[in-house]
Specification:
- By secondary structure, the protein is of the alpha/beta class.
- It is built from eight helices and twelve strands.
- It has an eight-stranded mixed beta sheet, sandwiched between helices. Strands 3-2-6-7 form a four-stranded mixed beta sheet.
- The chain is globular and about 50 Å long.
Length: about 240
């Protein structure tokens, strides 16, 4: 039986301001969860395809919430409960109607402790697609090892790999992410990147040139995300 789309990474608690203003002044918040990879798992499940999220959470209320909310979205959850670290947290403020800012509290989070041991035998091998992001590569050495092991296992089983660059400058702390991103992209079948993110992978100024440059690394499908303008996709050379 196929496991549909399998993804792995960190999902955190999300405090979101329910009113305009800076954190110094707002008083009302809503509590939810957020994570690039689990967002994909939720979207896939809502479209009717099975999805599985692999990750780590702390032995705390936020960790319980992550697991509960993902399961409520019909996502299969494979979560290691880490008693040595807390579930990460992000706080989102709506400073103006058009400007938001997110603060992350994840420097010692459970998600950073993701490791090869958290990858169940046979799960990736039975998938239709493995989806990964550059965030996991930046979290820690053990999380990066888990990501590359997952890709290796997907390749060995003939499972296509989808890679969303999803660059987070703060996580890299001054390190150059280009070589890491190019390595993952070269081992992926599908690559998603924003316009600025695409420049980590290829040279060029316009979306078409960047997409063409990324395909030369190896992927057969490249999508350059253009925000409100949609996207540009190069699929099998077209």
């Amino acid at each position: 039986m196929t496991t549909g789309v399998v993804t792995l990474g960190e999902t955190m608690g999300l405090f979101r301001a329910a009113e305009l203003g800076s954190l110094a002044h707002v008083t009302d918040f809503k509590l939810g969860i957020g994570g690039a990879e689990s967002n994909v798992a939720i979207g896939v499940a809502r479209l009717g395809t099975p999805s599985t999220w692999i990750g780590r959470v702390g032995a705390d209320g936020l960790g319980d919430r992550v697991v509960r909310e993902l399961r409520a979205e019909s996502v299969t959850v494979v979560a290691t409960v880490d008693g040595s670290a807390s579930t990460g947290l992000m706080v989102k403020e709506q400073r103006t109607a058009a400007a938001t800012r997110v603060a992350y509290y994840r420097s010692v989070s459970a998600g950073r402790n993701l490791s090869v041991d958290d990858l169940p035998a046979g799960l990736i091998e039975g998938a239709q697609l493995l989806h990964v992001t550059g965030i996991t590569a930046a979290l820690s050495d053990s999380a990066r090892a888990a990501l590359h092991t997952a890709i290796d296992r997907a390749h060995d089983a003939g499972v296509p790999v989808s890679f969303d660059v999803n660059h987070r400058n703060a996580l890299w702390r001054g390190r150059d992410a280009s070589a890491e991103y190019r390595d993952i992209a070269a081992r992926s079948h599908i690559v998603f990147a924003g316009l600025d993110e695409a420049r980590f992978l290829a040279h060029g100024t316009d979306p078409a040139a960047l997409a063409a440059g990324i395909t030369r690394l190896g992927p057969t499908q490249v999508v350059i995300k253009l925000g409100e303008e949609g996207c540009l996709g190069v699929i099998d050379g077209e």
